[in-house]
Specification:
Blueprint (H helix, E strand, L loop, with lengths): L2 E5 L4 H9 L5 E5 L14 H6 L2 E4 L7 H5 L6 E4 L9 H6 L3 E3 L6 H16 L2 H10 L16 E5 L3 H12 L3 E5 L5 H7 L2 E2 L2 H7 L2 E4 L13 H6 L5 E4 L8 H9 L5 E4 L5 H6 L5 H5 L5 H11 L4 E3 L8 H19 L9
Parallel strand pairs: 1-2, 1-3, 3-4, 4-5, 6-7, 6-9, 7-8, 9-10, 10-11, 11-12
Length: 342
């Protein structure tokens, strides 16, 4: 008997995988839209009755109302590390297992971070824009060599750790902050674990590689930004809510810091990923209105790089992510707990 599965947030980069991998044990329906309180009402009753597994991305929103529509749901799997878009308490009440994918896209995310460091510290974005307007200013493009820079890394989990290793090979001085220092990094990469104040004050580039929770939300506010060098940069590929968008915008406009590269922002569904979102959609989420306004202002600044959450987005990472997703579902249905988060 095949497993009835729905895949939401289905992207073009995932289509080749399902063309090339015949999953005989699964009967899958694909939806490009996200799953939320509104879109769940568009699903026919027979799908709601028969579905046992759903797969979503971070742009979906799973709560009690959404869950109540499914009659036989056993598993929700998110094709991401983070699972804050799924209400775990509501899932537990209905005995629904929630799975994520932890170890994928690490190399892709690290390579992307290094690319952003180079774009910012070599002023490449200025050069690209000036060439397009045929107005060149070579003094404006003068950059810095990586080996002369201090990299501050907030969080040395799987991505932060690999970033340390690569930055070390590139000759960068590395300051890190994490509640659990990694002895291997200290011994092999000469990484210096320090307090946040020291990291913000002394780093030329700061990267965020933290999970999102109550203690990490708003890790970067005007207080932290005020401690940074006026020549420093900030890079965020983790979670938009780690940085207060309004505070970052004001720091950039007032030249408190030199620039930023953001692959994610607060309320990114409205600010970056769906740049043409209807105003009525944003108004349904009043907490996001101000954040979206400042995200779009950030997009207009020439010293800011904004991308639509693509740090992980490589052919290799996508394959690994989907392989892990399918494997975890199969194991879970057999009584296993691989990648289960509740």
């Amino acid at each position: 008997m095949s497993i009835k599965m729905l895949i939401f947030d289905y992207s073009d980069v995932e289509k080749d995988y399902f063309k090339n991998n015949k999953l005989e044990d699964f009967e899958i329906d694909f939806f490009e839209n996200s799953l939320n309180e509104r879109t769940v009402n568009n699903l026919p009753d027979y799908i709601l009755d028969e579905t046992t597994v759903i797969s979503v991305f971070k742009t979906s929103r799973i709560n009690a109302e959404v869950l109540s529509k499914f009659k036989n749901l056993l598993i929700i799997t998110t094709r991401s590390r983070g699972y804050e878009h799924i209400n775990l308490e509501d899932c537990c009440k209905r005995h629904i297992k929630v799975l994520n994918v932890e170890q994928y896209g690490v190399e892709s995310a690290v390579e992307y971070t290094i690319a952003m460091i180079l774009m910012l510290t070599r002023n490449i974005i200025f050069a690209i824009n000036d060439v397009k307007s045929f107005k060149l200013s070579f003094e404006r493009y003068k950059g810095r060599e990586l080996k002369s820079l201090t990299l501050g890394i907030l969080g040395t989990g799987c991505i932060g750790k690999e970033l340390c290793k690569l930055a070390c090979k590139l000759g960068m001085t590395i300051l890190t902050y994490d509640i659990k220092p990694d002895k291997e990094l200290i011994e092999t990469c000469n990484v210096r674990y320090t307090d946040k104040n020291t990291l913000f004050t002394n780093s030329d580039v700061i990267t965020l590689n933290l999970p999102l929770n109550d203690t990490t939300k708003n890790t970067i506010t005007r207080l932290e930004l005020s401690k940074m060098k006026s020549t420093s940069y900030i890079i965020n590929i983790s979670h938009g809510e780690l940085i207060n968008t309004e505070d970052l915008y004001k720091a950039l406009v007032n030249k408190k810091i030199a620039g930023a590269a953001l692959d994610t922002t607060e309320c990114e569904k409205y600010g970056i990923i769906a740049g043409d979102t209807n105003v009525s959609e944003i108004l349904k989420n009043p907490d996001c209105i101000n954040k979206t306004v400042f995200t779009r202002r950030l997009a207009m600044l020439e010293n800011v790089i904004l991308t639509p959450h693509i740090a992980y987005n490589t052919k290799e990472a996508t394959k690994k992510m989907l392989d892990l997703t399918i494997h975890s579902i199969e194991e879970c249905l057999q009584g296993g707990h691989s990648n289960q988060v509740n």
